[in-house]
Amino acid sequence: MEKAIGIDPPLVASTSSSQILKTGSNSHSIALPPNTTPVNNAFMTSVNDASSTRRITRTGYVYDPLMMLHCMEGYMPTAENAENNGDGHPEDPMRIKRIFTRLAEQGLIRRMKRLDFDEVKFEQVMLVHSEELWDKVQGTEFLTDEHIQDLREYYEQLSLYVCRETAHCARLSAGGVIQACLSVCREEVRNAFAIVRPPGHHAEPNEHMGFCFFNNVAVAAREMQKQGLAKKVLILDWDVHHGNGTQRAFWKDPDVLYMSLHRHEGGTFYPNSDFGSLNMVGEGPGIGKSVNVPWPGPGFGDADYIYAFQRIIMPIAYEFNPDLVIISAGFDAADGDMLGQCHVTPAAYGHMSHMLSALAGGKLVVALEGGYNLRAISDSALAVARVLLGEIPPELGYLQASEAATETIYQVAKEQSKYWKSIDVKACEPPEVDRLENGSSAIFSIPDLLKVHRAHYLFTKHDLFQVPLASPDLDEAFSGQIICNESVYEVGKKGVLVVFVHDFGNLRVETEGVMSTNVHMANSYLLDTTDALISWVKNQEYNIIDVNILQQLPTRYPTGPQMIVKRGKELEAKLMKYLWDNYIELSECEKIVLIGHGTGCQAVMDLVNEREVERKVKAVVQVAGLHSLVRPDPNDKDKLRWFKQNNRLYVPAEHVLLEDEKVKRRLGDQVFTSQKSKVVDVLNDVLPEIKTFVAAKVEDPPLPNGTISNVSSSGNGQATINEQTSTVAAAA
Q1: Looking at per-residue confidence, does 452 or 324 come out higher?
Q2: Please, are residues 618 and 591 in contact by the beta-carbon 8 Å criterion?
Q3: Structurally, how many domains does the chain consist of?
Q4: Distance from C-alpha of 324 to C-alpha of 365, rounded to nearest angstrom
Q5: N or C, which end of the chain is more exposed by having fewer CB within 10 Å?
Q6: Dist CA 516 CA 432 (whole Å)
Q7: Distance (Å, rounded) from C-alpha 51 to C-alpha 346?
Q8: Are residues 354 and 390 both part of a single domain?
Q9: Long-range interactions of 579-584: CB distance < 8 A, separation 24+
Q10: Overall pTM surpassing 0.85 (yes/no)
Q11: Domain co-membership, 492 together with 392
């Protein structure tokens, strides 16, 4: 460890650190960058004060290189000029050093005031967290190397790593943010930048997770309230991941407004839950005090974030009128970050900081959260620090928010307008809605129109009927979307039941864009796809249950580890289990075929993973679109073996899944490609192959002349024919 961080002259930044260094610690601090000795009389800026003519120091900062001691076993510092940490853990100790060094090299540190600080105290942590969590974090100080290795899997499941310095660093990190807030609220400085780690916004009241141990910002906000320094606190979280811990800490608090812009992907992006969805708005007295802007995927940039600030963040913030503003400043939405995969530039971070600095009389604290590209976080932090020091952010030029961002903001506005008078839903309407003259046209949801039309069409053409749902929540979400033939419980002529699970798709995604959308063409195209498959099922005299989950498609491919996920949407999984328990399992049909189309693939796989389907299900077909795919349970070896023998996956030839060689090898001969790019086209294209595959799985092979026995299954899973002639049968 000493070799890893060096033994240069220490930077004294906190009371506790100073004492450790004076008494001789086994750890060593990081050397100051050249020519950056802190100045006692920091750069002063005259600020008008209503109660005094005294001069207030413009900006403070919190930094202690001892926080770098939280690291993985065998950690070696990343090169000074590297953008990221290569094969190491993304939460690299160098993150804070690179930020501090960049600020120092640009002459900003000497213009700022260093804030001495203590470690967070037990009673302060208890304002947010449980004593059990405190004990868990403190316990890491006493772990041996063997214990750390034994517990590695446990911590990895929580997206954490630990060492014996972890607890010390976590206390420093939380203490640093508290001191930054204290100094701002006491007007010792106008604003402050807390360059701290480990981060905190994922840490929940009873659990540490996601690189976070204590929720630094939440503890600091509670401490300000306790001391009467700030009653109303605004926490703006622009980290690319949702701050589940911060939101949960203030879920019922009317005096803390939590606002987050994050990559959500329907709850499949970390922290992998629906808690960051736009309808998560708080509870009880805190209702309306949680504001989530959930981006549906990667790739969002300056125009999207600035648009969100103009339409949602700032109007609500002004109406809330906080006493203190804290930014949970994760820089993993920055252009170049490998985890966030978004494209926010330093200039945009500067503009967002500039807008927030107009609130609470300028009382603004920036607390570092995530951000894992070392170049991107140092550039972004530099832009924010310049704004804190009073510099004007650079021009951004012409910006136009993306279609996906515009739609997201519109949906957020509709939700938040229930709680905030300042939200103008009309101003947030996408262009095609805004063009409708007020009162001259009735606006109907396209999915609702399609749902009603489709149920009528399937009844009149195919004699299919709606399936009643006894569960109230399922009936509310899926009423009229589950269709079956009249004899679905009966064995029928062939004993085959096809369960077809699909969505309608997003009309705008399936065309060139908003300006070229042709609703009639997209609707008929998708309906023709469904009709062709149902006609085939009817002609084969199979039974059918048609499940329309009515979800929208994303606007771009998911990438990286989110391409394959453990589970799909909770309500859709509940629906599939309900149908299995009440219809499919009770049917006399012993040959079940599961076909998933688009997002229906996730629902099909949730059923495969959560019910014992192997006896009745003879074939699983997935026609994948842009959504993530749900993998079979890797711990159930028998089911995995069965699945590989009976599954087929059809994807577009340019599908991002095929770019991952590891996943491609694992799936092997289960994957088939189509030259079509749209999921509706793929189903049309591969339907003949699906027919052949299903027939091979469910149809009895032709028998030799005189044979009266059917196909049976041998012990090795291969079909064998028990041949008996009619003569032998008669003799028996």
Answers
A1: 324
A2: yes
A3: 2
A4: 8
A5: C
A6: 11
A7: 36
A8: yes
A9: 579/467, 579/482, 579/499, 579/545, 579/547, 580/607, 580/611, 580/613, 581/611, 582/470, 583/467, 583/484, 583/488, 583/489, 583/545, 584/497, 584/499, 584/545, 584/616
A10: no
A11: no
| pLDDT per residue as tens digits for the range 373-390 | 999 999 999 999 999 999
The values of phi and psi at residue 482, to 5°, are -110, 120
In whole angstroms, give the CA distance from residue 78 to residue 4.
10
C-alpha 616/C-alpha 625 separation (Å) is 27
Shared-domain flag, residues 506 and 478 = yes
Grade residue 2 by pLDDT with cuts at 50, 70 and 90.
very low
Inter-CA distances, 720 with 641, 711, 728, Å:
20, 6, 19
Q: Which domain holds residue 345?
A: 57-71+93-428
Q: Helices in 479-518 by DSSP H: which ranges?
A: none
217 in any annotated domain: yes
Q: Is 202 a catalytic residue?
A: yes
667: domain CATH number? 3.40.50.1820
Q: Is the dihedral of CA 100, 101, 103, 107 positive or negative?
A: positive
434-464 as b/e: b if 16+ CB within 10 A: eeeeeeeeeeeeebeebbeebbeebeeebeb
Residues 652, 510, single domain; the answer is yes
* Residue bearing tokens 């299995």: 580
More confident site: 182 or 572: 182
pLDDT over 70 at 50, yes or no: no
Dihedrals φ, ψ of 285, to 5°?
-65, -15
Q: Could you tell me if 222 and 174 are in contact, meaning their C-beta atoms sit under 8 angstroms apart?
A: no
Q: Same domain, yes or no, for 412 and 526?
A: no
Residue 707 lies in a domain: no
The single-letter DSSP state of residue 581 is I
User: Cα–Cα distance between 587 and 584 in angstroms, integer?
Assistant: 5
pLDDT averaged over every residue in the chain = 81
Sign of CA dihedral 226, 230, 232, 238: negative
**Residue 293: left if φ>0, alpha if ψ -120 to 50, beta else—which one?**
beta
Here the tokens at position 200 are 């905190």
Beta strands at 482-485 and 464-466: parallel, antiparallel or unpaired: antiparallel
CA distances from 515 to 199, 508, 511 (A): 43, 9, 9
Sheet of 256-263: strand order equals 113-114, 57-62, 189-194, 364-368, 324-329, 233-237, 256-263, 290-295
Write the pLDDT tens digit of every residue in 596-642: 988 889 899 999 999 999 999 999 999 987 666 777 888 889 998 99
Whether residue 25 has pLDDT greater than 60: no
Q: Do 277 and 345 fall within a single domain?
A: yes
Q: Which residues contact 584 (CB under 8 A, 6 or more apart)?
A: 497, 499, 545, 592, 616
Q: What pLDDT is stored for residue 701 in this prediction?
A: 62
Between 678 and 67, the more confident residue is 67
Tokens 């290569």 appear where?
86
Element (H, E) at 476: helix 472-478
Query: What type of residue is 54?
Result: R
For residue 358, what is the domain's CATH number?
3.40.800.20
In a domain? residue 77 = no
Residue 725 DSSP code: B
Q: Give the C-alpha distances (Å, rounded to integers) separating 687 from 5, 432, 485, 530, 683.
A: 61, 35, 21, 11, 6
Which one from 129, 168, 201, 202 is the annotated catalytic residue?
Answer: 202
Q: Give residues with Cβ within 8 angstroms of 48, minimum separation 6.
A: none
Amino acid in the structure at residue 615: R
What pLDDT, on the 0 to 100 scale, is given for residue 78?
63
Q: How many helices (H) and strands (E) does the chain have?
A: 26, 20
Helical (H) or strand (E) element with 578: helix 570-579
Contacts of 581 by beta carbon, 8 Å cutoff, 6+ apart:
611
Position 342 in a domain? yes
Q: Residues 386, 479: one domain? A: no
